[in-house]
Amino acid sequence: MEPLVVIYGSTGTGKSDLAVELATRFNGEIINADAMQMYEGLPIITNKLTSSEKRGIPHHLLGNIPLEDEPWSVTHFKREANRIVAEIRDRGKLPIVVGGTSYYLDGLLFDERLVEEHKDAAAGILPTRDELEAQYPILSGPAEAMLAKLREVDPAMANRWHPNDIRKIRNSLEIYFSTGRRASDIYAEQRVRKGAAQARSGSKRSNSWKTLLIWLYAKPEVLNERLETRVDKMVDKGLLDETAEVYTKLQSRLAAGEDVDRTKGIWQSIGLKQFEPYLRALEETPDDHSKLDALKQAGIEDTKTANRRYAKSQVRWITMKTLTSLQEEKVLDRLFLLDSSNIQLWKEEVLEKGVELTRQLLADEQLPQAVDLSETAREVLSSKVERSNRQEVACNQTCDLCKKTFLTEDLWQTHLKSKKHRKAVEWVKRTSLMVIDQAPGKEAAQEEPRVSQGEAQAAQGEQPQGIQEAESKPKPNEPL
Ligand SMILES: [Zn+2]
How far is the CA of 320 from the centre of ligand 1 (A)? Predict the structure, then answer.
Protein backbone atom coordinates (compact mmCIF):
# COMPACT_ATOMS: atom_id res chain seq x y z
CA MET A 1 0.00 0.00 0.00
CA GLU A 2 1.22 3.44 -0.89
CA PRO A 3 0.77 6.42 1.42
CA LEU A 4 -1.74 9.22 0.93
CA VAL A 5 -2.38 12.29 3.08
CA VAL A 6 -5.79 13.96 2.92
CA ILE A 7 -6.59 17.26 4.64
CA TYR A 8 -10.23 18.09 5.42
CA GLY A 9 -11.54 21.27 7.03
CA SER A 10 -13.66 24.35 6.62
CA THR A 11 -12.60 27.62 5.10
CA GLY A 12 -10.28 29.70 7.29
CA THR A 13 -8.62 26.86 9.19
CA GLY A 14 -5.27 26.97 7.37
CA LYS A 15 -5.52 23.78 5.28
CA SER A 16 -3.55 25.09 2.31
CA ASP A 17 -0.70 26.26 4.56
CA LEU A 18 -0.50 22.95 6.38
CA ALA A 19 -0.45 21.10 3.05
CA VAL A 20 2.53 23.19 1.87
CA GLU A 21 4.36 22.61 5.17
CA LEU A 22 3.91 18.85 4.90
CA ALA A 23 4.85 18.84 1.21
CA THR A 24 8.11 20.70 1.86
CA ARG A 25 9.12 18.26 4.61
CA PHE A 26 8.04 15.00 3.01
CA ASN A 27 8.75 15.55 -0.67
CA GLY A 28 5.09 16.00 -1.53
CA GLU A 29 2.89 17.41 -4.26
CA ILE A 30 -0.52 18.91 -3.62
CA ILE A 31 -3.85 18.12 -5.26
CA ASN A 32 -6.53 20.72 -4.72
CA ALA A 33 -10.00 19.47 -3.74
CA ASP A 34 -11.79 22.78 -3.47
CA ALA A 35 -14.41 23.26 -6.18
CA MET A 36 -14.01 27.06 -6.21
CA GLN A 37 -10.20 27.02 -6.35
CA MET A 38 -10.43 24.90 -9.47
CA TYR A 39 -11.62 27.97 -11.35
CA GLU A 40 -8.97 30.02 -13.10
CA GLY A 41 -8.18 33.55 -11.94
CA LEU A 42 -10.07 35.28 -9.13
CA PRO A 43 -7.37 34.66 -6.50
CA ILE A 44 -9.13 36.73 -3.86
CA ILE A 45 -12.66 35.32 -4.20
CA THR A 46 -11.36 31.77 -4.27
CA ASN A 47 -8.69 32.28 -1.57
CA LYS A 48 -5.86 30.81 -3.62
CA LEU A 49 -2.35 30.74 -2.23
CA THR A 50 0.01 33.24 -3.86
CA SER A 51 2.97 31.78 -5.71
CA SER A 52 5.32 32.72 -2.86
CA GLU A 53 3.00 30.97 -0.40
CA LYS A 54 3.18 27.85 -2.55
CA ARG A 55 6.95 27.77 -1.91
CA GLY A 56 7.69 25.95 -5.13
CA ILE A 57 5.49 22.97 -4.32
CA PRO A 58 3.61 21.67 -7.38
CA HIS A 59 -0.15 22.21 -7.04
CA HIS A 60 -2.58 20.23 -9.20
CA LEU A 61 -6.22 20.91 -10.13
CA LEU A 62 -5.76 24.52 -9.10
CA GLY A 63 -7.18 27.18 -11.43
CA ASN A 64 -7.56 24.55 -14.13
CA ILE A 65 -11.08 25.19 -15.41
CA PRO A 66 -12.57 28.27 -17.12
CA LEU A 67 -15.11 30.41 -15.29
CA GLU A 68 -17.93 29.42 -17.64
CA ASP A 69 -17.61 25.73 -16.86
CA GLU A 70 -19.84 23.86 -14.50
CA PRO A 71 -18.06 22.41 -11.47
CA TRP A 72 -16.78 18.89 -11.90
CA SER A 73 -18.95 16.01 -10.85
CA VAL A 74 -17.55 13.85 -8.10
CA THR A 75 -16.91 11.10 -10.66
CA HIS A 76 -14.87 13.46 -12.82
CA PHE A 77 -12.90 14.68 -9.81
CA LYS A 78 -12.25 11.17 -8.62
CA ARG A 79 -10.96 10.03 -12.00
CA GLU A 80 -8.58 12.99 -12.44
CA ALA A 81 -7.39 13.00 -8.83
CA ASN A 82 -6.63 9.27 -8.95
CA ARG A 83 -4.69 9.72 -12.15
CA ILE A 84 -2.61 12.53 -10.62
CA VAL A 85 -2.04 10.55 -7.40
CA ALA A 86 -0.57 7.75 -9.51
CA GLU A 87 1.68 10.18 -11.41
CA ILE A 88 2.96 11.74 -8.19
CA ARG A 89 3.79 8.28 -6.85
CA ASP A 90 5.59 7.45 -10.08
CA ARG A 91 7.81 10.42 -9.38
CA GLY A 92 8.55 8.87 -5.98
CA LYS A 93 6.73 11.63 -4.13
CA LEU A 94 3.94 11.85 -1.55
CA PRO A 95 0.48 12.92 -2.77
CA ILE A 96 -1.33 15.33 -0.43
CA VAL A 97 -4.98 16.06 -1.21
CA VAL A 98 -6.43 19.17 0.41
CA GLY A 99 -9.66 21.09 0.10
CA GLY A 100 -12.89 22.37 1.53
CA THR A 101 -15.12 20.37 -0.81
CA SER A 102 -15.49 17.32 1.39
CA TYR A 103 -17.88 15.94 -1.17
CA TYR A 104 -14.91 15.48 -3.54
CA LEU A 105 -12.69 14.05 -0.80
CA ASP A 106 -15.37 11.56 0.27
CA GLY A 107 -15.84 10.53 -3.35
CA LEU A 108 -12.12 9.95 -3.69
CA LEU A 109 -11.83 7.87 -0.51
CA PHE A 110 -14.93 5.74 -0.44
CA ASP A 111 -15.22 3.29 -3.32
CA GLU A 112 -18.62 1.92 -2.57
CA ARG A 113 -20.08 5.20 -1.61
CA LEU A 114 -23.05 6.31 -3.62
CA VAL A 115 -22.53 10.01 -3.71
CA GLU A 116 -25.64 11.95 -4.50
CA GLU A 117 -25.34 14.24 -7.46
CA HIS A 118 -27.69 16.92 -6.30
CA LYS A 119 -27.01 20.57 -6.87
CA ASP A 120 -25.95 21.64 -3.39
CA ALA A 121 -23.72 18.67 -2.93
CA ALA A 122 -21.68 19.79 -5.93
CA ALA A 123 -20.41 22.66 -3.82
CA GLY A 124 -20.22 20.59 -0.66
CA ILE A 125 -23.02 22.61 0.87
CA LEU A 126 -25.79 21.17 2.99
CA PRO A 127 -28.38 23.74 3.99
CA THR A 128 -28.61 24.41 7.73
CA ARG A 129 -31.80 23.74 9.63
CA ASP A 130 -32.53 27.49 9.82
CA GLU A 131 -32.12 27.87 6.08
CA LEU A 132 -34.44 24.94 5.46
CA GLU A 133 -37.05 26.36 7.80
CA ALA A 134 -36.86 29.72 6.08
CA GLN A 135 -37.34 28.06 2.72
CA TYR A 136 -39.95 25.53 3.83
CA PRO A 137 -42.16 27.08 6.55
CA ILE A 138 -43.97 23.78 6.92
CA LEU A 139 -40.95 22.56 8.96
CA SER A 140 -41.83 24.95 11.76
CA GLY A 141 -45.56 24.30 11.49
CA PRO A 142 -47.80 21.79 13.26
CA ALA A 143 -46.97 18.07 13.28
CA GLU A 144 -50.10 17.11 11.34
CA ALA A 145 -49.12 19.32 8.41
CA MET A 146 -45.61 17.84 8.38
CA LEU A 147 -46.94 14.33 8.50
CA ALA A 148 -49.41 15.05 5.68
CA LYS A 149 -46.57 16.42 3.57
CA LEU A 150 -44.37 13.42 4.35
CA ARG A 151 -47.20 11.05 3.38
CA GLU A 152 -47.31 12.84 0.06
CA VAL A 153 -43.58 12.83 -0.73
CA ASP A 154 -42.32 9.73 1.08
CA PRO A 155 -45.17 7.47 2.23
CA ALA A 156 -42.77 4.69 3.28
CA MET A 157 -41.12 6.94 5.87
CA ALA A 158 -44.47 8.42 6.94
CA ASN A 159 -45.72 4.95 7.78
CA ARG A 160 -42.63 4.21 9.75
CA TRP A 161 -42.98 6.95 12.35
CA HIS A 162 -45.50 7.34 15.12
CA PRO A 163 -47.68 10.40 14.38
CA ASN A 164 -46.48 12.01 17.62
CA ASP A 165 -42.81 11.58 16.80
CA ILE A 166 -42.34 15.08 15.42
CA ARG A 167 -38.55 14.85 15.53
CA LYS A 168 -38.38 11.88 13.19
CA ILE A 169 -41.11 13.17 10.90
CA ARG A 170 -39.32 16.49 10.55
CA ASN A 171 -35.97 14.77 10.03
CA SER A 172 -37.38 12.73 7.11
CA LEU A 173 -38.89 15.86 5.59
CA GLU A 174 -35.62 17.78 6.00
CA ILE A 175 -33.79 15.06 4.15
CA TYR A 176 -36.32 15.25 1.34
CA PHE A 177 -36.13 19.05 1.10
CA SER A 178 -32.35 19.28 1.34
CA THR A 179 -31.47 16.45 -1.03
CA GLY A 180 -34.55 16.25 -3.25
CA ARG A 181 -34.59 12.52 -2.53
CA ARG A 182 -36.71 10.29 -0.37
CA ALA A 183 -35.15 9.32 2.94
CA SER A 184 -36.50 5.81 2.39
CA ASP A 185 -34.55 5.51 -0.87
CA ILE A 186 -31.37 6.84 0.71
CA TYR A 187 -31.63 4.37 3.59
CA ALA A 188 -32.26 1.51 1.20
CA GLU A 189 -29.06 2.42 -0.65
CA GLN A 190 -27.15 2.75 2.59
CA ARG A 191 -28.25 -0.73 3.65
CA VAL A 192 -27.01 -2.16 0.37
CA ARG A 193 -23.74 -0.27 0.69
CA LYS A 194 -23.25 -1.29 4.29
CA GLY A 195 -23.84 -4.90 3.36
CA ALA A 196 -21.25 -4.61 0.61
CA ALA A 197 -18.75 -2.97 2.97
CA GLN A 198 -19.20 -5.71 5.55
CA ALA A 199 -18.86 -8.37 2.90
CA ARG A 200 -15.44 -6.97 2.04
CA SER A 201 -12.50 -7.35 4.34
CA GLY A 202 -14.08 -5.10 6.98
CA SER A 203 -11.87 -4.20 9.90
CA LYS A 204 -8.77 -5.53 8.17
CA ARG A 205 -8.90 -2.56 5.89
CA SER A 206 -7.59 -0.21 8.54
CA ASN A 207 -4.31 -2.13 8.68
CA SER A 208 -3.75 -2.21 4.96
CA TRP A 209 -4.97 1.31 4.28
CA LYS A 210 -1.98 3.63 4.32
CA THR A 211 -3.99 6.82 4.37
CA LEU A 212 -3.76 9.63 6.90
CA LEU A 213 -6.78 11.90 7.27
CA ILE A 214 -6.30 15.25 8.95
CA TRP A 215 -9.29 17.36 9.91
CA LEU A 216 -8.15 20.90 10.52
CA TYR A 217 -10.64 22.40 12.93
CA ALA A 218 -11.15 25.75 14.61
CA LYS A 219 -13.74 26.47 17.28
CA PRO A 220 -16.75 28.31 15.80
CA GLU A 221 -16.40 31.49 17.91
CA VAL A 222 -12.77 31.89 16.92
CA LEU A 223 -13.33 30.89 13.31
CA ASN A 224 -16.20 33.35 12.84
CA GLU A 225 -14.04 36.21 14.05
CA ARG A 226 -11.20 35.11 11.80
CA LEU A 227 -13.53 34.91 8.79
CA GLU A 228 -14.83 38.44 9.47
CA THR A 229 -11.32 39.84 9.55
CA ARG A 230 -10.52 37.93 6.40
CA VAL A 231 -13.42 39.48 4.49
CA ASP A 232 -12.15 42.95 5.47
CA LYS A 233 -8.69 42.02 4.21
CA MET A 234 -10.17 40.63 0.99
CA VAL A 235 -11.99 43.90 0.40
CA ASP A 236 -8.70 45.78 0.91
CA LYS A 237 -6.95 43.50 -1.55
CA GLY A 238 -9.55 44.08 -4.27
CA LEU A 239 -12.45 41.69 -3.71
CA LEU A 240 -14.84 44.19 -5.31
CA ASP A 241 -12.84 44.30 -8.56
CA GLU A 242 -13.01 40.55 -8.85
CA THR A 243 -16.69 40.51 -8.01
CA ALA A 244 -17.27 43.17 -10.68
CA GLU A 245 -15.37 40.98 -13.17
CA VAL A 246 -17.63 38.00 -12.50
CA TYR A 247 -20.70 40.24 -12.47
CA THR A 248 -19.83 41.72 -15.90
CA LYS A 249 -19.27 38.25 -17.30
CA LEU A 250 -22.59 37.11 -15.93
CA GLN A 251 -24.41 40.14 -17.35
CA SER A 252 -22.95 39.69 -20.81
CA ARG A 253 -23.95 36.04 -20.86
CA LEU A 254 -27.46 36.87 -19.74
CA ALA A 255 -27.63 39.66 -22.35
CA ALA A 256 -26.62 37.14 -25.02
CA GLY A 257 -29.68 35.16 -24.03
CA GLU A 258 -27.70 32.34 -22.45
CA ASP A 259 -29.22 30.20 -19.77
CA VAL A 260 -27.02 30.57 -16.71
CA ASP A 261 -27.62 28.35 -13.70
CA ARG A 262 -26.74 30.71 -10.88
CA THR A 263 -26.78 27.94 -8.30
CA LYS A 264 -23.72 26.34 -9.86
CA GLY A 265 -20.03 26.94 -10.19
CA ILE A 266 -18.45 30.35 -9.95
CA TRP A 267 -21.84 32.08 -10.19
CA GLN A 268 -22.61 31.05 -6.65
CA SER A 269 -19.24 32.16 -5.26
CA ILE A 270 -19.43 34.04 -1.99
CA GLY A 271 -19.42 37.79 -2.61
CA LEU A 272 -21.09 37.89 -6.01
CA LYS A 273 -24.68 37.76 -4.84
CA GLN A 274 -23.90 39.89 -1.81
CA PHE A 275 -22.34 42.75 -3.81
CA GLU A 276 -24.77 42.59 -6.70
CA PRO A 277 -27.02 45.45 -5.48
CA TYR A 278 -23.90 47.60 -5.10
CA LEU A 279 -22.57 46.70 -8.55
CA ARG A 280 -25.94 47.39 -10.14
CA ALA A 281 -26.19 50.77 -8.40
CA LEU A 282 -22.68 51.56 -9.61
CA GLU A 283 -24.01 51.31 -13.17
CA GLU A 284 -27.37 52.93 -12.61
CA THR A 285 -26.62 55.75 -10.14
CA PRO A 286 -22.85 56.21 -10.17
CA ASP A 287 -23.08 59.68 -8.54
CA ASP A 288 -25.19 58.75 -5.55
CA HIS A 289 -22.26 58.27 -3.21
CA SER A 290 -24.18 57.86 0.01
CA LYS A 291 -26.34 55.16 -1.54
CA LEU A 292 -23.26 53.41 -2.95
CA ASP A 293 -21.50 53.52 0.40
CA ALA A 294 -24.49 52.04 2.17
CA LEU A 295 -24.83 49.24 -0.39
CA LYS A 296 -21.13 48.48 -0.19
CA GLN A 297 -21.26 48.22 3.61
CA ALA A 298 -24.32 45.96 3.36
CA GLY A 299 -22.45 43.81 0.84
CA ILE A 300 -19.51 43.43 3.21
CA GLU A 301 -21.77 42.42 6.09
CA ASP A 302 -23.69 39.96 3.92
CA THR A 303 -20.45 38.45 2.66
CA LYS A 304 -19.32 37.92 6.25
CA THR A 305 -22.59 36.20 7.06
CA ALA A 306 -22.36 34.01 3.96
CA ASN A 307 -18.80 33.02 4.88
CA ARG A 308 -19.78 32.02 8.40
CA ARG A 309 -22.68 30.00 7.06
CA TYR A 310 -20.44 28.31 4.51
CA ALA A 311 -17.91 27.30 7.17
CA LYS A 312 -20.72 25.93 9.33
CA SER A 313 -22.11 23.86 6.49
CA GLN A 314 -18.63 22.48 5.73
CA VAL A 315 -18.21 21.29 9.32
CA ARG A 316 -21.71 19.84 9.23
CA TRP A 317 -20.79 17.83 6.16
CA ILE A 318 -17.73 16.37 7.86
CA THR A 319 -19.54 15.46 11.06
CA MET A 320 -22.67 14.12 9.37
CA LYS A 321 -21.31 12.46 6.28
CA THR A 322 -17.55 11.97 6.33
CA LEU A 323 -17.30 10.64 9.89
CA THR A 324 -20.20 8.28 9.29
CA SER A 325 -18.60 6.92 6.14
CA LEU A 326 -15.29 6.43 7.94
CA GLN A 327 -17.14 4.60 10.67
CA GLU A 328 -18.95 2.38 8.18
CA GLU A 329 -15.66 1.56 6.50
CA LYS A 330 -14.05 0.94 9.89
CA VAL A 331 -11.27 3.45 9.29
CA LEU A 332 -12.36 6.16 11.71
CA ASP A 333 -9.07 5.58 13.57
CA ARG A 334 -7.29 7.15 10.58
CA LEU A 335 -8.85 10.56 11.16
CA PHE A 336 -6.97 13.06 13.32
CA LEU A 337 -8.40 16.39 14.36
CA LEU A 338 -5.83 19.17 14.65
CA ASP A 339 -6.90 22.28 16.49
CA SER A 340 -6.11 25.55 14.72
CA SER A 341 -8.30 27.67 17.01
CA ASN A 342 -5.32 29.52 18.43
CA ILE A 343 -3.02 30.87 15.74
CA GLN A 344 -0.33 31.50 18.39
CA LEU A 345 -0.20 27.75 18.96
CA TRP A 346 -0.13 26.84 15.25
CA LYS A 347 3.39 25.43 15.48
CA GLU A 348 2.70 23.14 18.46
CA GLU A 349 -0.90 22.20 17.78
CA VAL A 350 -1.01 21.93 14.00
CA LEU A 351 2.41 21.90 12.40
CA GLU A 352 4.34 19.64 14.78
CA LYS A 353 1.45 17.22 15.29
CA GLY A 354 0.72 17.06 11.56
CA VAL A 355 4.40 16.43 10.80
CA GLU A 356 4.67 13.70 13.43
CA LEU A 357 1.55 11.92 12.17
CA THR A 358 2.84 11.99 8.60
CA ARG A 359 6.23 10.68 9.73
CA GLN A 360 4.56 7.84 11.61
CA LEU A 361 2.42 6.99 8.59
CA LEU A 362 5.42 6.86 6.27
CA ALA A 363 7.48 4.85 8.77
CA ASP A 364 4.64 2.35 9.24
CA GLU A 365 4.59 3.15 12.93
CA GLN A 366 1.55 2.78 15.14
CA LEU A 367 -0.57 5.94 14.94
CA PRO A 368 -1.83 7.46 18.20
CA GLN A 369 -5.43 7.57 19.37
CA ALA A 370 -7.13 10.56 17.73
CA VAL A 371 -8.87 11.63 20.94
CA ASP A 372 -5.51 11.91 22.72
CA LEU A 373 -4.15 14.59 20.40
CA SER A 374 -5.84 17.54 22.10
CA GLU A 375 -8.69 18.53 24.37
CA THR A 376 -10.60 19.80 21.34
CA ALA A 377 -10.07 16.53 19.49
CA ARG A 378 -11.47 14.68 22.47
CA GLU A 379 -14.49 16.97 22.71
CA VAL A 380 -15.38 16.84 19.03
CA LEU A 381 -14.53 13.23 18.26
CA SER A 382 -15.10 11.27 21.44
CA SER A 383 -18.72 10.27 21.01
CA LYS A 384 -18.10 9.04 17.46
CA VAL A 385 -14.87 7.26 18.31
CA GLU A 386 -16.24 5.58 21.42
CA ARG A 387 -19.21 4.34 19.45
CA SER A 388 -16.92 3.01 16.76
CA ASN A 389 -14.81 1.15 19.33
CA ARG A 390 -17.92 -0.32 20.89
CA GLN A 391 -18.95 -1.68 17.52
CA GLU A 392 -15.84 -3.82 17.55
CA VAL A 393 -16.36 -5.23 21.02
CA ALA A 394 -18.09 -8.56 21.00
CA CYS A 395 -20.42 -9.32 23.84
CA ASN A 396 -23.35 -11.58 24.48
CA GLN A 397 -25.96 -9.74 26.47
CA THR A 398 -29.53 -10.82 26.86
CA CYS A 399 -32.20 -8.44 27.97
CA ASP A 400 -34.59 -10.44 30.13
CA LEU A 401 -37.28 -7.84 29.83
CA CYS A 402 -37.30 -7.67 26.06
CA LYS A 403 -36.18 -11.26 25.49
CA LYS A 404 -33.46 -10.25 23.08
CA THR A 405 -29.75 -11.02 22.84
CA PHE A 406 -27.09 -8.69 21.54
CA LEU A 407 -23.72 -9.74 20.25
CA THR A 408 -21.82 -6.46 20.18
CA GLU A 409 -21.36 -3.88 22.86
CA ASP A 410 -22.71 -1.22 20.54
CA LEU A 411 -25.99 -2.99 19.85
CA TRP A 412 -26.36 -3.70 23.54
CA GLN A 413 -25.75 -0.09 24.58
CA THR A 414 -28.11 1.11 21.89
CA HIS A 415 -30.75 -1.27 23.15
CA LEU A 416 -30.43 -0.03 26.72
CA LYS A 417 -31.10 3.47 25.49
CA SER A 418 -33.93 2.49 23.17
CA LYS A 419 -37.46 3.67 23.74
CA LYS A 420 -38.74 0.12 23.72
CA HIS A 421 -36.42 -1.03 26.47
CA ARG A 422 -36.98 2.07 28.58
CA LYS A 423 -40.71 1.62 28.25
CA ALA A 424 -40.38 -1.97 29.36
CA VAL A 425 -38.36 -0.86 32.39
CA GLU A 426 -40.95 1.77 33.24
CA TRP A 427 -43.79 -0.65 32.87
CA VAL A 428 -42.19 -3.17 35.17
CA LYS A 429 -41.42 -0.48 37.72
CA ARG A 430 -44.97 0.77 37.70
CA THR A 431 -46.60 -2.60 37.94
CA SER A 432 -43.93 -3.79 40.40
CA LEU A 433 -44.15 -7.28 39.07
CA MET A 434 -40.50 -7.86 39.79
CA VAL A 435 -37.42 -6.04 40.95
CA ILE A 436 -35.12 -5.26 38.09
CA ASP A 437 -31.93 -3.50 37.31
CA GLN A 438 -31.78 -0.81 34.69
CA ALA A 439 -29.03 -2.82 33.02
CA PRO A 440 -29.61 -6.55 33.41
CA GLY A 441 -26.64 -8.38 34.79
CA LYS A 442 -23.85 -10.29 33.17
CA GLU A 443 -25.28 -13.66 34.20
CA ALA A 444 -27.60 -13.35 31.23
CA ALA A 445 -24.54 -13.66 29.06
CA GLN A 446 -24.17 -17.33 29.89
CA GLU A 447 -27.51 -18.19 28.38
CA GLU A 448 -27.89 -19.42 24.86
CA PRO A 449 -28.52 -16.51 22.54
CA ARG A 450 -32.18 -16.45 21.72
CA VAL A 451 -31.83 -14.43 18.57
CA SER A 452 -29.11 -14.19 16.02
CA GLN A 453 -27.13 -11.03 15.56
CA GLY A 454 -28.99 -10.40 12.35
CA GLU A 455 -32.33 -10.55 14.09
CA ALA A 456 -31.06 -8.35 16.86
CA GLN A 457 -29.97 -5.88 14.27
CA ALA A 458 -33.30 -6.11 12.52
CA ALA A 459 -34.97 -5.30 15.81
CA GLN A 460 -32.87 -2.17 15.90
CA GLY A 461 -33.41 -1.67 12.25
CA GLU A 462 -35.33 1.55 12.40
CA GLN A 463 -32.13 3.48 12.92
CA PRO A 464 -30.72 4.14 9.51
CA GLN A 465 -27.14 5.26 9.80
CA GLY A 466 -25.46 7.98 7.97
CA ILE A 467 -27.84 10.84 7.65
CA GLN A 468 -29.62 11.22 10.94
CA GLU A 469 -28.20 14.02 12.96
CA ALA A 470 -27.98 12.41 16.33
CA GLU A 471 -29.40 9.51 18.18
CA SER A 472 -32.30 10.31 20.39
CA LYS A 473 -31.15 10.65 23.93
CA PRO A 474 -33.34 9.31 26.72
CA LYS A 475 -35.62 12.10 27.88
CA PRO A 476 -36.72 11.62 31.45
CA ASN A 477 -40.09 13.31 31.05
CA GLU A 478 -41.12 11.67 27.86
CA PRO A 479 -44.71 10.40 28.01
CA LEU A 480 -45.08 6.65 27.71
ZN1 LIG B 1 -34.64 -4.54 26.88
Answer: 28
